[in-house]
Amino acid sequence: MSATSLLAVPPQRPVDGVALTVVIVIFVAVAVLGFFAARWRRGSAPAGLKSLDEWGLGGRGFGSWVTWFLLGGDLYTAYTFIAVPAAMWSTGAVSGFFAVPYTVVLYPIVFLLMARLWSVSHRHGFVTPADFVGGRYGSRALSLVVAVTGIVATMPYIALQLVGIKAVLTVLGIGGGSNAFVQDLPLIIAFVVLAAYTYTAGLRAPALIAVVKDLLIYLAVIVAIVYLPAHFGGFGAVFDAATTKLSTKSPVTGLPIGSVIPGAQSFNAYLTLALGSAMALFMYPHSITGVLATRSRSTIRRNAVVLPLYSLMLGFLALLGYVAIKAGTKPIDVNGAINPQLVVPQLFLDSFPSWFAGIALAAIAVGALVPAAIMSIAASNLFTRNIYRDFLRPQASPASQARVSKLVSLLVKFGALIFVIGMDQSSAINLQLLGGIWILQTFPAIVAGLYTRWFHRWALVAGWAVGIVYGTVAAYGVVNPVTHAHFGGSIAAAPLLGTPVYIGITAFVLNELVSALGTLLLRALHVSDGRDVTRPSDYGADEHDPKVEAIEGRATPAQPQATLPPA
């Protein structure tokens, strides 16, 4: 399949009325469910949704089943379902299939770390990871850098959920024409509805919608992985077609465009990319928000055991990229250019009856709404707790914090929408790659703090700064061989070693070295460290243990509130 033949296909697409109708019906049903969620699991909390605990964390009462769907909907986003098979279709396993082992490595990390974070957050009423860092190290400065990193890293992630919805609309024939406003109107409507029910119901909305989203995704993937390979001659024929395409030499680089399985020269890049991605994923504020919304630490551990089922599904979904090669799928955007992000939606539309294709495409669209809602809530909670409350209005009441967070969540979604409409899609992808590198630099402060108080707060700030600067500069130096654009990838040669590795891991190692050496130096100079408001017993607390800080609107024993000393 040549690029010339693909580009010869006219960009104008007919509208598939049946598939579009199914998508609209499911979207409307999901929107109604989102608004209904405002009354779901409210219990007898007198504060209603007028506190961050109720609006931003769903009352901290989600059990195992709800958490399973919520975390699955949160971590396996629409862009995951679009990008992983698209990468497999474009260049093969090195850039696509690493997502499967990284999600397998992820869950032991969750099992070990997140239960401790839940316990200490439960005891002290921490709403964000920056709350914990600030309380553990007694430093608003360190809390601020964790919060800002989380917000900045999350913004392009939200924008990429829009890319998923945009891909669905494009293959359905919506989004063509010369009028820019008409092109983007369906996307605008979708996110206005998202903003409305998130503002109304908070975290309860994506938690409830996640159940529908995951059931639809499972249905679409199971049917596709059973039917499509058999329809196109079996997996042997699928892998043969993928090998033929990916072994073709690129006219630009003179090298094969990809590989069906990683070669020996790619082992270090593949390994470090999988490991670094696993370490980074639960540093994202939206992942931690899903954890803190659970009822107990045992809920988290049970979910860490069963969530790898999503990794199995992700592996099947990734193989659809190879199936699309065998099927001859033509992912042509409205401008006539090849857009790999359209591969899976186009494959479903070409290979199934319109009604079932509509269900699969609706699953992708709904799959964007769940993580986008959680991400916007998490980012707004970071702003409210760790910028607005800590620096602008220290005496802000729980109700005031909830109001600010609701408003900021609207601004975050609006900013993501403007970003996608006004900028090239590659900009969002590049920034999301940077976001992964950046968020990994909060790992030392958060994870080390769960086990030890040895690191000095200012050494952690210095290590964070070094990691951020190195990661950004190194990522800028990666040039796309086709477009010659900077930020062309996340793999670069490690200093001194010369081996290609994930830039985030190299930045993380530098971060740790600076944090450790800085701690030794600052302690030798007897520089004052902050006050730790936590106690060893906090890290094993469970749901019925009394809290240090009373949670607004919930009947629990309370002790005097712990205050955070200045930076």
Description:
With 567 residues, this protein is an all-alpha fold. It has one domain: Up-down Bundle (Sodium/glucose cotransporter), CATH 1.20.1730.10. Helix content is 67%, strand content 1%. It contains 23 helices and two strands. It has helices at residues 3-7, 17-36, 52-55, 64-75, 78-90, 93-96, 99-124, 129-137, 140-171, 180-201, 204-231, 234-246, 267-281, 285-292, 297-306, 308-327, 343-351, 354-392, 398-422, 425-440, 443-449, 457-476, 503-524, and strands at residues 491-493, 500-502. A hairpin with a 6-residue loop joins strand 1 (491-493) and strand 2 (500-502). Helix 2 (17-36) packs parallel to helix 10 (180-201), helix 2 (17-36) packs parallel to helix 18 (354-392) and helix 9 (140-171) packs across helix 19. Residues 1-11 and 550-567 have low confidence and may be disordered.
- The CATH class, by name, is Mainly Alpha
Helix content: 55-70%
Strand order of the largest sheet: 1-2
SS class:
mainly alpha
List how many beta strands DSSP finds.
Answer: 2
CATH topology: Sodium/glucose cotransporter
| Tally of contiguous helical segments | 23
Sum up the structure in keywords:
mainly alpha; disordered N terminus; 2 strands; 567 residues; two-stranded antiparallel sheet; Sodium/glucose cotransporter; disordered C terminus; 23 helices
Compact summary:
This protein has a single domain (3-424), classed as Up-down Bundle (Sodium/glucose cotransporter).
Outline the fold blueprint.
Blueprint: H1 3-7, H2 17-36, H3 52-55, H4 64-75, H5 78-90, H6 93-96, H7 99-124, H8 129-137, H9 140-171, H10 180-201, H11 204-231, H12 234-246, H13 267-281, H14 285-292, H15 297-306, H16 308-327, H17 343-351, H18 354-392, H19 398-422, H20 425-440, H21 443-449, H22 457-476, E1 491-493, E2 500-502, H23 503-524
Antiparallel strand pairs: 1-2
